[in-house]
Amino acid sequence: MQELDYVEGDATDPVGDGPRIIAHVCNDIGAWGRGIVEVISRRWPEPEREFRRWHGEPTFRLGAVQLVPVAPELWVANMVGQHGIATRRGLRTGSGYEAGAGPPVRYDAIRECLTSLVTHARTRHASVHMPRIGCGLAGGTWAGIEPLIRETLCAHDVPTVVYDLSA
């Protein structure tokens, strides 16, 4: 079993050599523009463009992963792991607002995404790099997410690095 590595830095500037996948969590309503995606879009236009194109297709759903090449041996994994987005009015979903619906994070969908990511990483002999996915705008807890990473990526010997931004 591969250990989970933690480093201080920016997940969009992954450490190490060789093939690398930058993973992050997206919502299921096609919204893009806050959190790590702001940094991703400044560095590469392809992940946002492909996410917006993918939204509305039959393959776009909770638990799905879209791998977007951004450089030689570097991909961004758009992982649909949150239902809607949190707002002051409540949870905004594709059908409106749901007051008191709780955070948008969907742990089962993130588990499914990470399981798919194992195949993508192993096929490409790639390491996976991510911020603390699902814990920012999605409203999840690291205590809920970290075991999912260990049960999927780490259990299948995929080198995985979690990035914490410097203070």
TrEMBL record:
Gene3D superfamilies: Leucine Aminopeptidase, subunit E, domain 1. It catalyses: an N-(ADP-alpha-D-ribosyl)-thymidine in DNA + H2O = a thymidine in DNA + ADP-D-ribose. Coiled coil: none annotated. Residues 1-167 form the Macro domain. InterPro entries: ADP-ribose_metab_enzymes, Macro_dom, Macro_dom-like. PROSITE patterns: MACRO. Transmembrane segments: none annotated. GO terms for biological process: peptidyl-glutamate ADP-deribosylation. This is O-acetyl-ADP-ribose deacetylase (Regulator of RNase III).
